[in-house]
Design goal:
Blueprint (H helix, E strand, L loop, with lengths): L1 E3 L4 H16 L5 E2 L8 H10 L7 H19 L4 E6 L7 H9 L4 E7 L2 H11 L5 E3 L1 E3 L2 H10 L6 E6 L11 H11 L6 E7 L4 H7 L6 H17 L8 E8 L4 E8 L3 E5 L4 E5 L4 E8 L3 H10 L2 E9 L4 E8 L2
Parallel strand pairs: 1-6, 2-13, 3-4, 3-7, 4-5, 4-6, 7-8
Antiparallel strand pairs: 8-15, 9-10, 10-13, 11-12, 14-15
The chain binds N,N-dimethyl-L-histidine.
The site of N,N-dimethyl-L-histidine has 11 residues, from strand 13.
């Protein structure tokens, strides 16, 4: 069941046009926000990335959740309200909901800006016994504020933020975002945070530049999306995908590199943009954490890091943060 809906299609397109104008009109490094990678085409390409042999992150996330779901249920007392920031396909959440629902019925509030993703998640998770799913079609923090309004006195809130989406925030924005999340919570509430860890360079680069070209297609779809939604005339063959590691920020960056000097018109953004040969648009950063950095992140945003579960095959962590007084 869909509970809340906010922005119209026109408003979303107008915001996209404004962000494209600002990001491509910058002097210096051109950039576009990574959230624009995820239209219907991009989201389905991301689902494919998550099963590519080189991209171990999603499988590791699932493995750790599956292995430790009962431990998590033991650590968090009932009664409980569960919310998830970005439900995705809902696949990973199944293990947690099943473990929690074994002891008592649970209401689950997935928060997503995409109605399609919410519908998908609902289909996937409605088979879990004793779960009630109430989808919220909103930005994360607005959605969370809505969830907390529905909390019964004495109920504890568990917020799930899985899949290392936290790593896609700009440097410093991860901490600021978690501080905002904390402000919607009460002491004793919990946050389960999935975060990818630092690993050897070759492994990282292969994960973000798979030989089958799925990640390249995912990145290039950003240009195709501007063509579809803003009537732009990007020639996708004149750009190429690039993944590089930035050691200063410990992040894999995705860029779109212009193969030649060219000018592109974007009518619905009322904008023309010139690219020098070799110039790039920075489309995403994926930060790779260390376990101690995650403990500091918890402390800096009003939590205590109570538990860290990791995967041995692909360095990945699931972190249980408890809101402090
Ligand atoms: C969604 N997010 C955690 C992915 C990541 O690994 O940073 C997005 C992604 N970009 C390229 N491949 C996957």
């Amino acid at each position: 069941m869909l509970l809340e809906q906010t922005q119209t299609v026109d408003a979303v397109t107008a915001q996209f046009a404004a962000d494209v104008r600002a990001g491509l009109g910058r002097t210096g490094q051109k950039e576009l926000a990574s959230k624009y990678l995820y239209d219907v085409v991009g989201s389905s390409l991301f689902e494919t990335i998550s099963i590519m042999p080189e991209y171990g992150l999603t499988r590791a996330d699932e493995r750790v959740l599956r292995r430790h779901a009962d431990d998590l249920a033991r650590l968090i007392p009932a009664p409980l309200l569960v919310s998830e920031l970005g439900s995705g396909s809902g696949k990973k959440t199944r293990w947690i909901l099943e473990a929690l629902c074994r002891r008592e019925p649970v209401t689950y509030y997935p928060i997503e800006i995409s109605a399609t993703a919410l519908a998908f998640c609902e289909r996937e998770l409605s088979q879990v016994e004793r779960v009630t799913i109430l989808g919220i079609e909103r930005e994360y923090l607005d959605g969370l504020a809505e969830v907390t309004k529905r909390r019964q006195p004495g109920a504890r809130l568990l917020v799930l933020f899985l899949g290392s989406t936290i790593g896609n925030f700009d440097s410093g924005a991860d901490r600021r975002f978690l501080q905002c999340v904390r402000q919607t919570m009460l002491p004793g509430d919990c946050l389960l945070l999935g975060a990818d860890l630092v690993k050897p360079l070759a492994r990282l680069l292969a994960a973000y530049d798979d030989p089958a070209g799925v990640t390249a297609a995912f990145n290039l779809n950003m240009l195709a999306r501007m063509n579809r939604e803003l009537d732009a005339d990007f020639n996708l063959r004149q750009f190429e995908h690039e993944a590089r590691f930035n050691p200063r920020t410990s992040s894999v960056e995705m860029h779109l590199r212009s193969k030649k000097s060219q000018t592109v018109t974007i009518p619905r953004a009322e904008f023309m943009v010139h690219f020098r040969e070799g110039e790039t648009i920075w489309t995403e950063s994926s930060h790779k954490y260390s376990l101690s950095e995650l403990q500091r992140l918890a402390a800096d945003s009003g939590f205590e890091c109570q538990e860290q579960w990791t995967d041995q095959e692909w360095q990945f962590s699931e972190n249980l943060f408890v809101a402090t007084v």
